[in-house]
């Protein structure tokens, strides 16, 4: 499947009082990796909007394996897992130096027709065509 990877350095403002990255900031890291993946296939949020579809996240799962600390350099990979009926992306956050897995995650997005607000039971043809042309 298609993957993209980004590099993030944990900043002071990402930390909680225990001096590790606050759990809520992981969603931001995943979003950055997901956008790199969507850019790679040519169907990021501006293209979604132009095609008339909204893609809300309906499920997000995170498994915190090890904490991320201040100034730690991490690699966040996003891999497309499903796309025909929903957009499912799997993530791994790894320490850049050691390769140790720090976090595992997954998000699921569904297509919604922007004009009607109706949930689409299949992914729009534009997404399927872009992915299949990439493979």
Summarize the structure in words.
This protein has about 140 residues and is of the alpha+beta class. The protein contains 3 helices and 7 strands. Helix content is about 25%, strand content about 35%. The strands form 2 sheets. A 5-stranded antiparallel sheet has the order 1-4-5-6-3.
The CATH superfamily label reads: Hotdog Thioesterase
CATH-derived topology: Thiol Ester Dehydrase, Chain A
CATH first level: Alpha Beta
Rg, Cα atoms, Å: 16 Å
DSSP strand tally: 7
CATH architecture: Roll
Number of helices: 3
Helix fraction, binned, reads 10-25%
Secondary-structure blueprint of this entry?
Layout: E1 3-9, H1 26-41, H2 45-50, E2 53-54, E3 57-64, E4 73-82, E5 87-95, E6 101-109, E7 112-113, H3 125-134
Antiparallel strand pairs: 1-4, 2-7, 3-6, 4-5, 5-6
